[in-house]
Amino acid sequence: MLTVLNRVFVSAFYARNAGTFLVILLLAFGFLSAVEHKALITAALGSPLLLGIVFILWGFYLLKTVSFIQQELTAPEHLFLQAFWLIPTPARLAMWFGVQLALLFPIIAYGGWMIQIASVYQRWDSLTAIGLVLAGLTVTGVALADYRLKHPNPGNIQLPHVSVPLRYELFFPTYWLRYEPLSLVLTKVFSCLLLVGVCRLYPTDDYDQRLLLIGLLLAVLGHSQVGSQVSAFEHKYLLLLPNLPYSRLQRFGRYTLMYGLIWLPELLILLRNCPTGIRLDYVLWLWLTGWGWILLQHALAYPQTINPERWLSGILAGFIGGLLLIMFGLPVGIWLVLGWLGALGYWHWSALVKDRTSSFRQD
């Protein structure tokens, strides 16, 4: 039975929230080194206010896990779990305890790190508080999950539903984060780890700026499937989008902001791991270049009639051609101009072709 519960709750929870965990890891560990993070924990151990903020964040995470369990218990495909309450209470609570430990593993692991640091600095008051809070969160999660199991139909008292309107630029990133987290994780992990690896190569030997350009080329090509994903998303959920009164420049601007948000983690990675011999302005130009070329990939991949085999062949040919141009010393400024002008020009040309085709069909 515990295996079934782990598949229904634990595996599904981490799969559905993989993108959220990636964002948290990038913000928490991509921009702060281990030494800086340890210093932050040390400061929290000596400040009741900071430690209280950490506990509040843990409480929000517990609410997220409890909400997920309640949602899955009421899902039609999981109604068979209503018979789970027939299991004797000690065995049932023990299983819920195992599930809750697995769901709370991120904060338990982080709390364990804090406890280890607290023991080194002999902060026994903070150590005790952390242990009690972790135990309280686990017990509370078990009690709430078991209560919802026994009371599948919620009463009249409910938490207010908070609805936050999203701008268009956030539609696809939010959808990508919630419903295709594996694709998001693979894309961003590949891109960010690649850039980190390239930056870490500089202290080992003498490299010039071409190495960063090669890393940028691979990171951009790692986003080659995003354009087709955006196209599929809009053709499925935003059917009225082509009929809205937006000019070509306005549409291009909205896609620019959306891809800027998607490409933002790479900027944090480059700034955090910038090699000593590379100027900061060059890193910014490098990131802007990648932004433009991702937009160009979007313009090329957006039509649904594109052949996947031809697209992959084009990506391979683009990598070989780009690698040769980089090795021959094509500067980043030219790459920047080519990417942005190519994206804007191809977007304008494809829009003109689409408008002419539509008018021809009407005639």
Task: Please provide a written account of the structure.
Keywords: Membrane, Transmembrane, Transmembrane helix. It comes from Spirosoma linguale (strain ATCC 33905 / DSM 74 / LMG 10896 / Claus 1). This is Transmembrane protein. This protein has 2 domains: 149 residues, no CATH class; 193 residues, no CATH class. The protein is 76% helix and 0% strand. Helix 1 runs parallel beside helix 5 and helix 9 packs across helix 12. It is built from 15 helices and no strands. By secondary structure, it is mainly α.
Secondary-structure topology with pairs:
Elements: H1 2-16, H2 18-30, H3 34-45, H4 48-73, H5 89-103, H6 105-120, H7 124-150, H8 171-179, H9 181-201, H10 210-221, H11 226-237, H12 248-272, H13 280-301, H14 308-327, H15 332-362
Short overview:
It comes from Spirosoma linguale (strain ATCC 33905 / DSM 74 / LMG 10896 / Claus 1). The chain contains 15 helices and no strands. The chain is an all-alpha fold.
Count of alpha/pi helices: 15
Characterize the biggest β-sheet.
Answer: none
The geometry reads as: globular
Give the N-to-C terminal Cα separation: 65 Å
The whole-number mean of residue pLDDT values reads: 81
Subunit arrangement of the protein = single chain
Number of strands: 0
Calculate Rg over CA atoms: 25 Å
Helix content: over 70%
Number of structural units classed as domains: 2
Describe the structure using short key phrases.
2 domains; mainly alpha; 15 helices
